[in-house]
Amino acid sequence: MIRFLLSSLLILTLFSCGPKIIKGLEVPVSKQNIGSPYFSDLSKDYVYKAKLDIYGNYFGGILIVKKISEVKHRVVFTTEFGSKIFDFLYDGDTFTKNFILPDLDRKIVVNTLEKDFRILITEKTDVVSQYQNSEYDVFETANSDGGNLFSENVESKQLYSIANAPNGRIKILITFNDVEENIAKKININHNNIKLSIALEYLKK
Amino acid sequence: MSKVLLMVFIFVSSVTFSQETAMNASEIESFKAMVVKASQEANTIKSDFIQYKHLDFLDNDIETFGALQFKAPGLVKWEYTKPYEYSVIFKDEQLLINDGGTKNAIDIGSSKMFKKLNQLIVNSVKGDMFSDDDFNVTYFKTRNSSKAVFVPKDSKMLEYIASFELLFDTTDGAVTQVKMIEPSQDYTKIVFSNRKINTPIDDSVFTQ
Q1: CA-to-CA distance for A31 and A141, rounded, in angstroms?
Q2: A186-192 CB contacts, 8 Å cutoff, 24+ apart
Q3: B62 contacts in A (CB within 8 Å)?
Q4: Whole-angstrom distance between the N-terminal and C-terminal Cα of chain A?
Q5: Which domain holds residue B155?
Q6: Taking phi first (over 0 means left), then psi (-120 to 50 degrees means alpha), and beta for anything else, what does residue A157 get?
Q7: Residue B16 falls within a domain, yes or no?
Q8: What is the 3-state secondary structure (H, E, C) of A86-149?
Q9: Fewer CB within 10 Å, N side or C side of chain B?
């Protein structure tokens, strides 16, 4: 299974394109920074049942995210039986791979996972421009990957999605659903340039 | 005051340490014989369990509830029921996984590692891991239970698992707890309850 995941990730179709993102009309910037608020509480253990679909092959596990200081997050993925698949530490801009199964320890796998989870946990990025369409206020941030677009529901002001969209085409789309008390009960991460999707469902205590 | 505290500490420590002592050679022999006998007599085992995943950075262990069914010689169904539904059946040369309705079968016929894993699971459920050449085993006793600590000999395996600890009921040799300790000292602890031996289990339990 792990070997398949690896070979699937290696068949990275660099030239495929995702759908175009609809930003809406440009409006004046109303806030300096934006980010994901859903992993920002130091007192919470964020535990999710995870389902991964990679090129039609499927496997599951448990994703654990914990903010351990103002600038640090641990992101750990285990099997249902509890054995670790990977264990990452994000300390500001520094990334440390505490552990990953040797079969998965390939640059493309680690980079893909590192980037996905960094988007999920980053709480503040500078806003460079802002748009509005009928449903969302869209905030564009600048980063080395061509910028992310944060869509907030116009009425609830709740963050609904983050899209990594270099050149206006969506490469990675993360959506947050069933938000209660600042916890996103359902999170979906979809890649458009590789057939990888991750569905997360919050586990109640 | 500090002297008093030190005395209290030494007293508490000695009491704590004295609760677990190493078995002597004859105790090991009779303990092993009891467990092997209990294991051989168990044609079926049903048990509930609670799994505790301990990660040093979390405020609380992650608790998962489930049930286990075993039928000799080698059928195992390991099922989580709360807070999510997930089951694995170890059958013949296959792992049959049902993850909340998503079903998956993995052929393990060609994988030595999975065969080893399967054997380990069956043997740890039954408690009979003592003849396994892959581990160095040490034995301890406490007032209410016996403990066997299995340390892998293989350096590759040691990268994943520092040790297995199995706790046994001293009266009937049944496994009451399994703890898998990682090199980082994070661990997974499984505590069994409502254990039933030799109640009929239909083969259909082990199908998807």
Answers
A1: 11
A2: A187/A38, A187/A48, A187/A120, A189/A116, A189/A120, A191/A112, A192/A16, A192/A17, A192/A18, A192/A19
A3: 45, 47, 62, 64, 203
A4: 30
A5: 22-206
A6: left
A7: no
A8: EEEEEECCEEEEEEECHHHCCHHHHHHHHHHHHHHHCCCEEEEEEEECCCEEEEEECCCCCCEE
A9: N
- pTM value is 0.85
Mean pLDDT, to the nearest integer, of A63-87? Answer: 94
For the domain that residue A46 is a member of, what is the CATH number?
2.50.20
Instruction: Please report which confidence band the pLDDT of residue A12 belongs to, taking 50, 70 and 90 as the band edges.
Output: very low
Amino acid at B176: T
The fraction of chain A above a pLDDT of 90, given in percent, is 65
Can you tell me the ipTM of this complex?
0.84
Rounded to whole angstroms, how far apart are CA atoms A65 and A43? 12
Structurally, how many domains does chain A consist of?
A: 1
Quote the minimal CA–CA distance from A117 to chain B in Å: 18
Q: Which chain B residues contact residue A43 at CB under 8 A?
A: 59
- A2 at B interface, C-beta within 8 A: no
What residue numbers bound the domain in which A156 lies?
Answer: 2-202
Q: What is the pLDDT of residues A108-158, one digit of tens each?
A: 889 999 999 999 999 999 999 999 999 999 999 987 666 899 999 999 999
Give domain status of residue B33, yes or no: yes
In this predicted structure, the answer to whether residue A70 has a pLDDT above a threshold of 90 is yes
Q: DSSP character for A78?
A: E
The CATH number of whichever domain residue B141 belongs to comes to 2.50.20.10
Q: In this complex, how many residue pairs, one in chain A and one in chain B, have their CB atoms less than 8 Å apart?
A: 63
Tell me whether A91 touches chain B (CB under 8 Å). no
pLDDT, tens digit (0-9, with 9 covering 90-100), for B187-204? 999 999 999 999 999 999
* Number of domains chain B is built from: 1
Q: Is the backbone peptide bond immediately before B73 cis, with ω within 30 degrees of 0?
A: yes
Indicate the residue type of B72.
Answer: A
Torsion of CA B9, B11, B13, B17, to 10 degrees: 180
